[in-house]
Design a protein that fits this description.
binds NADP nicotinamide-adenine-dinucleotide phosphate; alpha/beta; eight-stranded mixed β-sheet; two-stranded parallel ribbon
């Protein structure tokens, strides 16, 4: 069972679809039960906010892995970068770890290590994401645990597997685009690929070219 946090978001919905494509049981953590109706009857629904430890604990119970596609959408309040991108993800990782979840995969962003990047003018969003990354790396690099952190360029809509990708490590990419569906595919593939375990990497489109699978890109990362 895989819990998807941020499942009602644009990337999160793709994560759910790709999990279903591979026949993997899905539970979603959603703020509004009403919004979860888009998923149909095959998906378990846990209603909760990332501010609420008890709700997160109930959502992660019995899950083998967690995929976070959470993202902030306002300067202040419960959807702010501090509340969602940093503290929400940290709380989710802590509750998942306590519940015995083995793998934690998350969406972050290119440029998270650059405090001086203009995007940080949005309530320090990149720095908040970086703080969450650091926490996830520390908690999920322990024995019998693993993490995968995907740092995409700008996100676009569209079908998966339509682009050859470029991956890099060390936060050296300044711009570029990638489809949310490919980010979702990379997150889902991290569940079973050994080459994806304990990796943090950047990813953008390189050229339009159909891809059979995205597994090969994990093979390009340092071991
Ligand atoms: N846009 C870009 O170009 C870009 C580039 C690089 C990285 N990213 C990052 O990629 C990630 C995915 O982006 P996206 O565009 O797919 O995001 P999105 O559509 O805005 O989805 C964000 C999700 O987070 C959920 N959420 C927000 N506050 C929450 C709370 N307090 N408790 C529980 N859930 C909460 C939202 O729930 P509701 O549906 O209830 O609102 C939604 O499901 C984000 O972290 C984003 O910052 C974006």
């Amino acid at each position: 069972m895989v819990l998807v946090a941020g499942a009602t978001g644009k990337t999160g919905q793709w994560v759910v679809r790709r999990l279903q494509h591979y026949g993997i049981p899905v539970r979603v953590l959603v703020r509004s039960a009403e919004k979860a109706s888009v998923f149909g009857s095959g998906v378990e629904v846990a209603v909760g906010h990332v501010q609420n430890k008890g709700e997160i604990a109930a959502a992660v119970k019995g899950c083998d892995a967690v995929i976070s596609a959470l993202g902030s959408s306002s300067f202040f309040g419960e959807a702010s970068p501090q509340e969602v991108d940093r503290d929400g993800v940290i709380r989710l990782a802590d509750e998942a770890s306590k519940a015995g979840v083995r793998h934690f995969a998350m969406v972050s962003s290119i440029a998270v290590t650059r405090w001086y990047h203009p995007l940080n003018l949005f309530a320090g969003v990149l720095s908040m994401k970086y703080a969450a990354e650091e926490h996830v790396r520390s908690v999920f690099s322990r024995e019998n645990r693993s993490y995968t952190i995907v740092r995409p360029g700008g996100l676009k809509d569209g079908e998966p597997l339509q682009f050859r990708l470029h991956v890099d490590e060390g936060d050296r990419i300044w711009n570029g685009w990638i489809n949310r569906s490919d980010v979702a595919e990379l997150l889902v593939a991290s569940l079973w690929l050994d080459s994806a375990k304990n990796k943090t990497f950047e990813v953008i489109n390189e050229a339009e070219e159909y891809q059979e699978s995205l597994a090969q890109y994990y093979g390009k990362l340092s071991h």
